[in-house]
Amino acid sequence: MGKVTLQEEFVELIANQQKLIHSLCSLYFSRYEDRKDMFQEIVLQLWKSYPSFNHQSKVSTWIYRISLNTVFTKLRKEKLRPKNEPYSEYAYQISAFDNSIELTQATEELYHAIERLADLDKAIIMLYLEEHSYDEIAGILNLSRTNVSTRINRIKTKLEKLLKNQLP
Amino acid sequence: MNLDELKPLWDSYKTQVNDESEWNSDDIARLIRNRPVPISWYQKAQRPFLHFCVSCLLISITSGC
User: Fold this and answer.
1) Within 10 A of A103 (CB to CB), how many other CB atoms are there?
2) Whether A47 and B38 lie within 8 Å, measured CB to CB
3) Strands (DSSP E) along chain B, which ranges?
4) Could you report the per-residue pLDDT of B7-59, keeping only the tens digit for each?
5) Structure confidence at residue A104 as a pLDDT band (50, 70, 90)
6) Backbone angles phi, psi at B37, to 5 degrees
7) What is the pTM of this model?
8) Nearest-CA residue of chain B relative to A101?
9) What is the ipTM of this complex?
10) Confidence check: pLDDT of A40 > 90
11) pLDDT in tens, A137-157
């Protein structure tokens, strides 16, 4: 049997873990094209840093750290984009979440509730739901443990209100 | 609100999003194939180091050391 190359190893890893990246992209980008671009950008960033990944931390922790850095860099660039560009005008005209993803009612409610959180809070609650410890979340997002703990309590209260309001 | 209430919903959300957006291994391989293979730092330093050594050699020869 031939030796597994670095590229084959990486492809297998991403194929198995892509669920994390897709769910992250869908929380930050409502348009299908933006989500697709972001997924590609994240995979390329992961590929770039793969040789230096020493497997000492969990694979999911490494993926989240790189992915969130890539997403936040992109969001910062988007915020710097002048509002009068044609792209921005078009972006305002389209619906909040295009129909390329079919969600059940319950999951759509959760999506809309999380979507209304601030960018950093979205990342925190996502990592929390992925059962990362407070220390891991603090490490991934460069925050203090106390800050993470306080924010999680606030986010949970906010989510509870948002989900209650969405119920009929 | 505790984690137990939201966790199944989140897992279901992830699965639904993934089902709609999943890439197969060939697509992922195609995406990274056109990119240069990451080069380790020591490989990047090889050529400047060679130039430095050659320069030192030439200086030592021309100065009569």
Assistant:
1) 18
2) yes
3) none
4) 888 888 888 888 888 899 999 999 888 666 666 677 778 888 999 999 999 99
5) confident
6) -65, 135
7) 0.74
8) B20
9) 0.74
10) yes
11) 999 999 999 999 999 999 988
Between the two ends of chain A, the Cα-to-Cα distance in Å is 59
Which of A6, A15, A23 has its CB closest to that of B14?
Answer: A23
Local structure of A45: helix, strand or coil: helix
| pLDDT, mean of residues A46-65 | 88
Q: How far is residue A143's CA from residue A147's CA, in Å, rounded to a whole number?
A: 6
Question: Which run of H or E residues covers position B5?
Answer: helix B3-21
Q: Considering just the CA atoms, what is the radius of gyration of chain A in Å?
A: 17
**DSSP H/E element including B46:** helix B41-62
CA dihedral angle for residue B27, residue B31, residue B37, residue B41, rounded to 10 degrees: -120
Angstrom distance (rounded) from CA A20 to CA A62? 11
Contact at CB, B21 and A22, closer than 8 angstroms: yes
CB A157 within 8 A of CB A146: no
The shortest CB-CB distance from A19 to any of B9, B14, B35 is to B14
Note whether B37 contacts A: Cβ–Cβ < 8 A: yes
Partners of A15 on chain B (C-beta within 8 Å) are: 23-25, 28
